Amino acid sequence: MRWLALMLCCAGCTCGPGGGNDAGRSVEVVRARTLISAAGRRDVPIDLTDSDLSALIPEDGGARVIYPEVTGPGVATFTAVPEGEYLLTLGNYNLITKGPRVDLGVASLGRADVALTDGGVELVLDATGLLPWQPYSDVLQVTAENAGYVALNAQSFVGDQPDAGVTDARFPLKWWEACSTSRGRLVPRVEADAGDVVVVTQLVSAKVPDAGALELRTLKRVATLPAFTLADHASTPVSASFAPPAAQQHLSLDFRQSAFDALRAAVHPEARPLSSSVTVSALPFSTSDGFFTASPDLAVLRPQQYSADVALDFDTGNPFPTAWGRVVSVRYAAQVEFAYPDGGAGRVTSNLVAQDLLPSSAQPLVPRISPPRAVKVEGLDGHSRAEISRLPTLSWEPPAQGSPTSYGVTIYRFSRVGGGPVIAVSEQGFFETTARAVQLPFGEVNPGEEYVFGITAFEATGAQAAQAPFKSRFPYAEATALTAMMHVRP
User: What contacts 262, CB < 8 A, 6 or more positions away?
Assistant: First the structure.
């Protein structure tokens, strides 16, 4: 782990508890989960006692790792922190900041008093009234918003798919595995006495004029399950009577895909299109916290050609409350293949993302931000392979489009699996900053190994990344530039 590597330390690094002997200020870190449900909002402190929260502070030309004292529920305090910037670390997330108080809180869906499970739970849906099933094409989604449970691909966790064309089927859903809204390693269970209601929707492929060039899934069937309590470590059978949704929503999408495709060269000179999608989702309860939770889909558009613009009008079912927000998300994925020394290759995917509340009238869906420009690694062109030190500095210029509220640096480590041709790619860490340069601390890259760095520009309305990095509003956008593969000197 990162903090362990730092504890082993380098020349110029020392380690110690938060107190130390140096004069300095106190820095307070707060962390709570804001739970959003039918009852409103409730902040629940997250226990920091066993967290790996730490700070890296500059000292005499080197750096020192300090650890906080837990001073209250969801509150930890660092002492003897010098004025200026320091690096705050929680897990694989690293924030470069200088403030005296940092809020690492997150917003989540569901009740504060919900029952949680660590697995071994099965919901057996005895479904009737489905639209004729299309195996490995149709999508089932499960939403229990008051409990805080959403499963976006439930059909992938039911074992074998039903036969093609059936309208009645049994779905033994693995509840824990299917969950898209887990709380750490635990998953909410629904309880009848708490007023939890479970809605299951069926999204199916719809016919569109450009058959073969477009894939469109719309919501065609819905089942509101009878009230039940999901037993822990057991199987619970429930009947699911599907029917066409009573409410329909007309959608007009004007997807300027060519504008996203035009940014591929800014991602990397060798970036190739991988996938593209426009998703319209129903966001439960709140639109003031950004896309704070996985949310059920109303429609998903996936062009099969990645450079053509798409304009489409269609209807889809919408069984969810009218008070819920409708969010449109564009995700354009480009992939780069990096040749590994002595043979083989690894791939990294970069996403161009734009999210906003669905406007009342059709507006062009275009990029809000482009990738950072002129990326350099240790002062040299980031698109040219080079040998780098164990303390590399990455720098960049602002994107040509958009107004970044922060930047992120992702470390991708490449390694050969055994002696064979397979090259593994793993994300080793993420650093967020409001500046345009980051020097990676000792222990982030290893001597003799191969790395690619991703530099992401974020644009999030109202964001204060240096004080509360996990909180934002709509609209939201991100775009990432990738470097060449770099070799760390032995």
Answer: none
Mean pLDDT within 142-155: 98
Could you give the dihedral angle defined by the CA atoms of residues 341, 344, 346 and 347, in that order, rounded to the nearest 10 degrees? 120
Residue 388 has which token pair? 């780098």
pLDDT digits (tens, 9 = 90+) for 370-383: 999 999 999 999 99
Q: Is the whole model's pTM more than 0.85, yes or no? A: yes
